[in-house]
Amino acid sequence: MENKNKVKRNLKQRHITMIALGGTIGTGLFLTSGATISQAGPFGSILAYIFIGIMVYFVMTSLGEMATYLPTSGSFADYGGRYVDPAFGFALGWNYWLNGAITIAVDLTTAGLITQFWFPHIHAWIFSGIATVLIFIINILAVRAFGETEYWLSTIKVITIIIFLIIGVLTIVGVLGQGNVDVAKNLTAGHHGFVGGIGGFVGVLLIAGFSFQGTELLGVTAGESENPEKSIPKAMNSIFWRILLFYIFTIIVIAAIINFKDPRLLNPNSTAVMSPFTIVFKNIGFAVAASVMNAVILTSVISSANSVMYASTRILYSLGRENGAPKFFGRTAKNGIPFYALLATSIICFITFLTGIFGTQIYLFLVDVSSLTGFLAWLGISISHIRFRRAYIAQGKKLEDLPYTAKWFPFGPLVALLMTAAIALNLDPTQLFSSRWGEALSIYAAIPIFIFLYLGYKWKYNTKLIPLEEVDLSRDKD
């Protein structure tokens, strides 16, 4: 008889692909991408997205190999516990849950900021609160209903970006815009397209990284997929083109059409924040289209928050089942939804999003905190994959028997590991000794919290690094 506390495998192949894509496209691309252009200049922002895109590609191929071999709702938290050390998996799980709670809060705050386009005199937090209730209702429905909702919302995102790219290219070549856009001037703004030098570039890597967060949803959805051995490889095979088309090309178009000094771009001093997508349509004289675009962006941001809520809830559910959290978090309702995990995540998200009321500086601070916790998750995926593959070979198994094999091993995960570690550790340590030391300390807090969780669990349960020959390579699923 099926365990009543297990999530149900109701997500179809089309759901998996679109949820993985839709969870990635949201606040990071539609709003905070403007902050990278504002702070690093056109070429600085483009280079930052290329840099992070390469890293994410390697992280995702690593996750894809493990997710097809062992589909589980706990995803990389489970892999860290199985292939590295139970304490490592415990720390990864709580880190990602924290990441999700903050990311959803950022998305909810973004939803409020976007509505200011139409209602500048109404407090943004009112619309953020409405969005909070909406995503809670969607997530409390059956998994199949959630999958259908995200499928159509993600489809809208994809169509929107394709239309945006077409119009953007037509504007760049001079077909649209009535000559109002000086592409050459925009791309060479600052010092040959760079602003702030190396410091400016390094400073926006976290923001660019935030834009890519959600790609790891692929691993979480595998646990509720009807046929992960087929759906995950299919989604993985298109990830390179998704990164290239939906991120790199989009940033190039935005940077070419919008000057980095545009006051409507997100930055610490912004008073009237607007999405770069909306600014592009206003700049080329499509006022009505700008309003429509703003509405689409609003649904996209809510969709992104919805996907992250799903992932965070499943991670907390998995921790509850594995004794990494109170046991009631590992229980599900009759429809297979981990209700208590969902409720706890929603409450924390609501409390966190209230901090966004205090302005764009606090908003960007939350983006940085979320990004750093996301980088730690990617770091964990790379380490887990290296251990998984080494254990797989050490135990005499054949690579051709894997449902999906990550390319470029071990180069890929090693590069991703070094890149994530370098970015996480080299943000701007000098801020710790400046007047902004409190803010900097909070941003860096994710690292000591992770270490505390890891060492605390290790001390309590006396866990050790699992020898390769003893790594659990069984394919038991939750």
TrEMBL record:
Membrane topology: Multi-pass membrane protein
Top-level taxonomic group: Bacteria
Occurrences of domain Amino acid permease/ SLC12A (ranges): 15-464
PROSITE patterns, per database record: AMINO_ACID_PERMEASE_1
Cellular localization per UniProt: Membrane
Listed InterPro entries: AA-permease/SLC12A_dom (IPR004841), Amino_acid_permease_CS (IPR004840), APC_YAT (IPR050524)
Membrane-spanning parts: 16-37, 43-60, 125-146, 158-177, 189-210, 239-260, 280-302, 337-356, 362-383, 404-425, 437-457
One Pfam family recorded for the sequence: AA_permease
Entry keywords, A to Z: Amino-acid transport, Membrane, Transmembrane, Transmembrane helix, Transport
Protein name per Swiss-Prot or TrEMBL: Amino acid permease
Source organism: Lactococcus nasutitermitis
